[in-house]
Write a structure and sequence with these properties.
The protein is of the alpha/beta class. About 35% of the residues lie in helices and about 15% in strands. Ligand P1T binds near residues 98, 101 and 170.
Length: about 375
């Protein structure tokens, strides 16, 4: 089955009770048993729920994995991965990543004795300098949030395999429409399904997909034992969202390109970060591991002018100033004060998250309206 069919049918079967084409919302916490243990495969909805299972099968299908897991948020999904570790273990992580992930690692898990090394991973060889016998996980986000750096998943997976370390890839920005980390050697692919997979800014959810059964069983155990699951209504919404992922992504990519090119030629803009530009330092890797360049980009204003940047996001009308990304509607964001405020200023500035940086999630509206909105705001 090809990707554009998998988004609609992958891992799905018609409802056994009445043949409903869409999986019903099984809004139940528990299931009747005829005798202790006499049930139809479902006992309690923290452990299993038919609507969530349908979604988890869809996650596995679109990422070319064998097992999918849905969580109450992207961070809950990341939290489950870190719970595979124990005190004394070490993680090598990209240094340019979602602020909430950085906060989870440093403010929660460092206190449990897990050590994190945050490094630039544009050159995978550098990772080996931080690997020792305690290293159990490599954490990659690509494209990175918010600098749109690209990390070579295949090259990182070679390092991970050589040292028998798990490789997890946050695929939120790319989605499986553009990039399939499991096919490139990752062990775990993670999503904030809040973003492109849901696609309509109406749900918060996380996803994991793996190929390996033993790893899946460990993660299912954590999912059930820790309980950070999502509800059936949210599962239904994301399942519905996935069915249009491919058509939405096609338009996100087209609009993203047009906006990136418009901004790059605007006299008030200093720099545009978008992996589709030939001048992007990892453009060649982006071309080889992604099918297009997505709808996310960031930019700075001339002279790194914080006040000018704030004025722009205040004046934009169609681009709404808001946290999050990946919905059908265009959003703008100011990473330094919003999504990445939990990263200390010295740390975030090392990766380019300066105070004048603006991030755009380019939606699927008419491109003329988006460009006109940017024109008036920059004017
Ligand atoms: O918000 P949540 O569903 O818990 O997902 C966290 C997360 C994980 N990984 C990436 C790459 C993300 O972008 C996010 C969430 N990001 C935002 C809310 C944001 O505006 O960047």
């Amino acid at each position: 089955m090809k990707f554009n069919t998998k988004t609609i049918h992958g891992g799905q079967e018609h409802d056994k009770a009445y043949g409903a084409v869409m999986p019903p919302i099984y809004q139940t916490s528990t299931y009747a048993q005829s005798t202790p243990g006499g049930h139809k495969g479902y006992e309690y909805s923290r452990t299993h729920n038919p609507t969530r299972n349908a979604l988890e099968n869809a996650f596995a299908s679109i990422e070319n994995g064998n097992f999918g897991l849905a969580f109450g948020s992207g961070l809950a999904a990341i939290d489950a991965i870190i719970k595979l570790l124990k005190p004394g273990d070490e993680v090598v992580s990209t240094n340019d990543l979602y602020g909430g992930t950085y906060r989870l690692f440093t403010k929660i898990y460092e206190a449990f004795g897990i050590k994190f090394h945050f490094i630039g991973m544009e050159n995978a060889d550098k990772i080996e300098n931080y690997v020792n016998n305690n290293t159990k996980l490599i954490w990659v986000e690509t494209p990175t949030n918010p600098m749109l750096n690209i990390i070579d998943i295949k090259a990182v997976s070679k390092v991970a395999k050589k040292h028998n370390i798990l490789l997890a890839v946050d695929n939120t920005f790319a989605t499986p429409y553009l990039q399939k980390p499991l096919d490139l050697g990752a062990d775990i692919v993670m999503h904030s399904a809040t973003k492109y997979l849901g696609g309509h800014s109406d749900v918060v959810m996380g996803a994991l997909v793996v190929k390996n059964k033993e790893l899946a069983d460990r993660l299912y155990f954590i999912q059930n034992a820790s309980g950070a699951i999502c509800g059936p209504q949210d599962s239904f919404l994301v399942l519905r969202g996935i069915k249009t992922l491919h058509v939405r992504m096609q338009r996100h990519c087209e609009n993203g390109k047009a906006v990136a090119e418009f901004l790059a030629n605007h006299p008030k803009i200093e720099k545009v970060y978008w992996p589709g530009f030939e001048t992007h330092p990892n453009h060649e890797i982006a071309k080889s591991q992604m099918d297009d360049f997505g709808g996310m980009l960031s930019f700075t204003t001339k002279g790194n002018d914080y006040d000018a940047s704030v004025k722009i996001v205040e004046k934009l009308k169609i681009f709404t100033l808001a946290e999050s990304l990946g919905g059908v509607e265009s959003l703008s964001g100011h990473p330094a004060s919003m999504t990445h405020a939990s990263i200390p200023k010295e740390e975030r500035e090392k990766t380019g998250v300066v105070d004048s940086l603006i991030r755009l999630s380019v939606g699927i509206e008419d491109i003329d309206d988006l460009i006109n909105d940017l024109k008036q705001a920059l004017g």
